[in-house]
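Internal ticket - ligand job 361, NAP:
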Amino acid sequence: MSRELASRASIFLVGTGVVGGALLEILRGPRGVDVAGVANRRGIVFAKEGPPIPPSKVGEIVGKPRGDAPAVIDDDLLDALATLPNPVLVDATAAGAIDELYLRALGRGIHVVTANKKPIAGPFAARARLFDPSNRARGARLRYSATVGAGLPVIETAKDLVRTGDQVKRIDCVLSGTLGFLSNAIASGTPLSRAVAIARQRGYTEPDPREDLLGADVARKAVILAREIGATIELDDVDREPFIPRDVLDRATPETLDKELARLDADFAARAERHAKRGEKLVYLARIEASFAGGGIRAYAAPTAVALDHPAATLEGSSALVAFTSARHASDPIVIRGSGAGGAVTAAALLADVFKVTGLA
Ligand SMILES: NC(=O)c1ccc[n+]([C@@H]2O[C@H](COP(=O)([O-])OP(=O)(O)OC[C@H]3O[C@@H](n4cnc5c(N)ncnc54)[C@H](OP(=O)(O)O)[C@@H]3O)[C@@H](O)[C@H]2O)c1
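stdout (structure tokens):
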């Protein structure tokens, strides 16, 4: 049967943590998607005889002790994956140098679907290689809806505005489920260090929570969005003020982070009280501004005090908000808000992208 006519997709999942684990959970139901293989930093399993692999095999690598030697997904494995119906490589890691794996997959006609912002927000030239039209000519597509706003239709909205000829003038966003959760928890009296521990426990934070606290995660999302509206912007071009002072995060290790944060508890509580007295709330806002006259696009992110009736101040838990102001939506921006972090919503966004790249939607 030709790939296009096959009614099932075959995924190879890299990363079995909060997001990858949630995806495996969703795929226990009849979704028309077979798990052909799974990899994490502890091992790799692949159904050589054809998918799906039995859940016990997945359990084998998920249950293995931790190690730091990432599984090697070699060309033989990719060649075998490429022969399966509608093959898709799904990236649910936060790995840095994974572009090369994407290129090897795309080059074989294997679609790539990712929740990992790093390759999409990485150097512009490297990203351009991932979107080379030759990949599409081989039938392979790359989608990354889950990288901004988890399960919210943020990327798709940006794309639709641009491809229908609208001019996006400004994008205002609360893009970090983690920082949104922290802002809310601190505003309602939870100490900073405790709030970070809860966010970690609930799977809202990046694998290394310093990425959230530095604003690096938000900056990557801002880069991804700015590029959707035509910017050739790099990560360093995003002006940002971290949520937690940089010197504290620079000296913290993952092991000492809790202790360093506890030293800031009183400061953050006092600041929250000051803002509450003024009828304000501190939120971590990012803004992308396009000035079409100059042709430039500017992006910045910082903790910002907003009035309590500002839409960003009304977000609860780990919710996210993105407001697009464009030539056509000038006086009443398109506002997208909802759950912006967490395993289940992000995994669902990955699965929706699997359906879209394979045409099974
Ligand atoms: N959590 C969210 O709400 C959310 C929302 C949107 C996007 N995302 C993105 O989704 C991705 C995954 O997040 P997560 O919260 O699921 O992280 P996580 O719980 O830390 O899981 C990461 C997984 O990736 C595996 N991994 C890391 N480097 C690898 C490598 N080089 N080769 C193979 N496997 C590797 C890890 O292996 P081990 O298990 O062996 O350590 C682990 O299974 C991140 O890029 C994150 O930014 C997350």
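Auto-summary: The first helix runs from residue 18 to 26. The pocket of NAP is lined by residues 14-20, 39-42, 70-71, 92-95, 115-117, 146, 150, 177, 203-204, 206-207, 341-343, 346 (CB under 6 Å).
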